[in-house]
Design brief:
The protein is α/β, with parallel strands linked by helices and 279 residues long. It is 44% helix and 16% strand. It is built from 13 helices and 10 strands. It has helices spanning 7-21, 30-36, 40-47, 53-63, 75-91, 109-120, 122-125, 139-147, 152-155, 161-167, 179-182, 216-228, 268-278, and strands at 97-102, 129-136, 149-150, 168-171, 174-177, 185-189, 204-207, 235-238, 251-253, 260-263. It has a 7-stranded mixed sheet with strand order 6-2-1-7-8-10-9. It is globular and about 60 Å long. The chain starts with 6 loop residues before the first helix and ends with a helix.
Length: 279
């Protein structure tokens, strides 16, 4: 029988996950560690030794949630198709580049869902260039995303039949996404706690069902950094259970929309000065 997790081992593991990925594991979430990782006490001991970096990466990846499916929740994609994309096209002259970020892209379904919408809209996009960047902290899902191969179960989760027939090829027992769609998205290993400036600026950011795993300070840090990488008319999509309210004043909800946010227009420097003045 495995020995109960000691307090010291739990603290080491929880601190490591928070520092490296932003993931918060409280005492009430010990079961998450126990169901995903064996011999936690022995693991904690090995993590404290020199040269443990490869093991640290394995632990962070093992604890990362990689749930994803095509057109997840659908409504954000409808808004992107009918509202955000037409607005961006109207505001961007021909020859410019539209950049879209799928943060925590997992195995790529979100990024490819956006790519298929854009492929369907190519006549109105004209000669504007499209760049879709998918990032994730876990290497395994990124490998699958770049490969663009999905199981029968995965293509049945949210993917319209007409898109399956149009943009996928059957390779028994799997389906592979068409090269023209795969080439629209690039996938990179990236930690949301890192320097977002290395990714460049984005017109649209999908960061859905990610912030729920962070504490408030980390949520604020990530959202503020994202705001600095977006133009004044940029848009942010969050998950249905996520919000910017009470976390940052840099974004404001779009009227009548759930989970869609625009920049508030209040400079971060001004807010900092106000906080200092009001102490």
């Amino acid at each position: 029988m495995t020995a109960p997790l000691t307090s010291a081992a739990f603290t080491l593991l929880a601190d490591l996950l928070r520092a490296r990925s932003g993931l918060i594991i409280g005492q009430d979430k010990i079961y998450l560690l126990e169901t995903r990782i064996e011999d936690l006490n022995g693991l904690a001991d090995r993590l404290g030794r020199p040269g443990a970096e490869p093991l640290v990466r394995e632990v962070v990846e093992a604890m990362t949630t990689n749930e994803s499916f095509f057109f997840r929740d659908d409504k954000p994609f409808q808004h992107f198709r009918t509202q955000a994309l037409p607005r961006l096209i109207a505001a961007r002259p021909l020859g410019t580049t539209l950049r879209i970020w799928s943060a925590a892209s997992s195995t790529g379904q979100e990024a490819y869902s956006l790519a298929m919408i854009l492929a369907e809209s190519k006549t109105v996009i004209g000669n504007r260039k499209i760049e879709i960047v998918g990032t994730d902290i876990a290497r395994g899902p990124l490998i699958r995303a770049r490969d663009g191969q999905y199981t029968q179960f995965e293509v049945q989760r949210g993917l319209p039949v007409q898109y399956l027939l149009k943009y996928f090829k059957k390779e028994d027992p799997h389906w592979r996404i068409a090269p023209e769609i795969r080439e629209m998205a690039q996938f990179r290993e990236f930690n949301l706690l890192g320097d977002l400036r290395s990714l460049g600026r984005f017109d649209i950011v999908f960061c859905r069902n990610v912030l729920i795993y962070f504490d408030q300070a980390t949520k604020t840090r990530v959202l503020e950094a994202m705001a600095l990488q977006m133009p004044p008319d940029g848009m942010l999509y969050l998950g249905g259970a996520e919000t910017v309210l009470g976390i940052t004043a840099r974004f404001a909800p779009l009227p009548g929309e759930r989970g869609v946010y625009g920049l508030s227009g209040v400079p971060i420097e001004q807010r900092v000065a106000t906080r200092v003045a009001t102490g």
